[in-house]
Amino acid sequence: MQLKAPAIVLAARPHGENAVILRALTREAGMVAAYVAGGQGRRLRPVVIPGNSVEADIRARSASQLPFGKVELMNSRAPWLNEPLPAAAILWVTALTASTLPERNPYPSLYDALGGLLDAICHAPSARGWAPALLSYEVLLLRELGYGGMKPEAGDLPETLAALNALGPALERYLLAERHGDAMAARGRLLERLARIA
């Protein structure tokens, strides 16, 4: 495997003393995992933050080997991780995507939609601007993975919040039922914060 492409960081799990196992979404190859040496170091730790856009150079000698990766920062979303509501949204959508997509299957529409959603979260004046995009992304993810048919309507923030609440059981049942971790807990924190401003 040899891939050099823009990617969205979904997760970075510490590995050993100084490396990380990076999970990133690319347009061409879908979600890929790679060993990034120095990922816990001073230079790369701010780069491998979930939500960041990077230029990824990923190479493996064989299909069974975990690829080695090098990343360079293209667009940092770290400043928004200091704000409770945008941080909750960024962490939820990256955790959801990392937990549900199979590796090395391209989903160009999900890559484009996730990039647009992250931009909206970071640049919209309030959650009213990006909450409908969050709902659309969750529906698109279900549809792309074969659980389509749901089309909740987004309106103002209370209607969007109601639609997000209605969509939760489908996400948990179809996408996250066999997954370990607390992805749905991240969604619960996000919806609680949205409810406070609705």
UniProtKB/TrEMBL annotation:
Identify the keywords attached in UniProt to this record, alphabetized. Answer: DNA damage, DNA recombination, DNA repair
Entry-linked SUPFAM superfamilies: Nucleic acid-binding proteins
The record's listing under Gene3D superfamilies reads: Nucleic acid-binding proteins, Recombination protein O, C-terminal domain
Q: Which spans of this chain does the record mark as coiled coil?
A: none
The protein's matches in Pfam families, at most eight in alphabetical order, are given as: RecO_C, RecO_N
* InterPro entries documented for this protein: DNA_rep/recomb_RecO_N, NA-bd_OB-fold, RecO, RecO_C
Entry's family note: Belongs to the RecO family.
Q: What is this protein called?
A: DNA repair protein RecO
